Each structure stands twice: as C-alpha cells, then as structure tokens.
Task: inverse folding
C-alpha cells in the first residue's frame, strides 16, 4: 500500500534494525504467530521460558506496553524492558496494516545489556574525570592562595612581584581545570577562559592610566593539552 515507512515516526529508531535482532510477528490481537531463535533467546533473558507461539506476551510473563500502544495507535513504539541481574532488552513494535486496516505487528527485540553496562561505565568514568579536575583545581587554588599570602609578607619588592606572577600563572592553569570539572569532555570552551583571564589581568596590573580590554570573536573549543599552555601564554601576554 506504499504506507511504509511511516511519515510521522522514526520507524528504525536508534541503531535499529540490525541483522542480529530477534523478530516476533503478532496478529491484530497481539498473539505471536512467529518467533525467530534470537527473539526466543531474548525472551529467555527476560525470564519467559514458555514457547510464545499462539500466546500473548503477557501470558508468558513479558509485559511490554510498547506492543499494546503500537496496536492501539497504529504507530511504531520503542521500549526497554528491565529484568533481574541488570538485564535490558530493547523492544521495538512496528504495526502492520493492509489497506488501512491493522493486521498485526512486527516486534524487534534485542539484548542491550552490554550496551547499558557500557553506558553506566562511561557515566562513572566521566564523573571520576570531573572529580579529578575539581580536586586539581582546588589544589591549584590553594597553592595560589599560599603564593599570594607569601607575597604580601615579603619585604623584597622584587620577590613580591615574582610571587605575584607565579600566583597568576597558577591561577591561569586552575581556570582550565575549573572548566574541565564542569564538563567531562576533553574539549575546553576557551571563550569562557579568556573572560576569566582578562579579569585576572585587570585585577593584577596597576597602571597610571585606565586600560580597557575588549574581546571579539570566538576561539571555539580546544583540547585540554592545548588549552592549558595557551591559557598561561595568554595570561603572560595580558
């Protein structure tokens, strides 16, 4: 009937379909007419060990709202089912229609447990990286405060200026780690650092006349190993 794919929905979804997906064919009432071995294996992972042929999935212990929604609305639907032992099964129901009359649905099922576990590991790694950058930033700020404190106690003007310059350089590096502590990616939005460096320079430099610093344009995102030395260089130039 030239009704496929559906104009109002993303039928394939994210990463679907794939050759390894299990496939179920359901009639208009939701009873299973056909199931591939991969589909049966996925149902087993959900704890459903009865043969699905001729049965509703609810009758074998699989409660997928996606299927009921697809059959009721005539639109594709995606869901992820959770089972004990952190098992995750993706369910994608695509309704079948003939001349506008709903005749059933094709259901794709896939074991996404490993993918979800990888996602959890990535989130955990990102959190750990942010925490590392946060602690480095705190340590650098402590060093900066100690240098500033020592500079104020110095009797030598030359020594005091040297300590203030060292403190400013440490603060410039701390700014990079502060940005990285908010975003786990290795890319640093350098525009945010530039504004902070300008503020540092305006606070640190004493002149006989007014100085105005204007920043135009955008530097975009830079890798952390480039942003750190560039921040120090820019601080020196300012």
Result:
């Amino acid at each position: 009937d030239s009704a496929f794919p559906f104009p109002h929905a993303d039928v394939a979804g994210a990463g679907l379909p794939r050759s390894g997906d299990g496939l179920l064919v359901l009639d208009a009432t939701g009873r299973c007419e056909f199931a591939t071995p991969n589909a049966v294996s996925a149902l087993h992972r959900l704890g459903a060990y009865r043969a699905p042929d001729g049965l509703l999935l609810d009758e074998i212990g699989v409660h997928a709202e996606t299927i009921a929604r697809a059959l009721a609305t005539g639109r594709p639907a995606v869901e992820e089912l959770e089972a004990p032992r952190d098992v995750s099964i993706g369910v994608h129901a695509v309704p079948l229609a003939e001349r506008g009359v709903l005749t059933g649905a094709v259901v794709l099922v896939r074991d996404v447990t490993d993918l979800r576990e990888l996602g959890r590991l990535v989130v955990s790694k990102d959190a750990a990286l942010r925490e590392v950058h946060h602690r480095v930033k705190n340590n650098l700020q402590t060093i900066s405060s100690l240098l500033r404190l020592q500079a104020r106690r110095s009797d030598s003007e030359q020594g005091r200026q040297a300590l203030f310059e060292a403190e400013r350089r440490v603060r410039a590096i701390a700014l990079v780690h502060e940005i990285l502590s908010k975003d786990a990616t290795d890319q640093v939005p350098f525009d945010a650092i530039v504004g902070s460096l300008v503020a540092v320079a305006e606070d640190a430099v004493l002149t006989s006349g007014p100085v105005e610093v204007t920043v135009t344009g955008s530097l975009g995102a830079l890798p952390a190993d480039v942003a750190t030395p560039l921040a120090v260089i820019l601080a020196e130039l300012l």
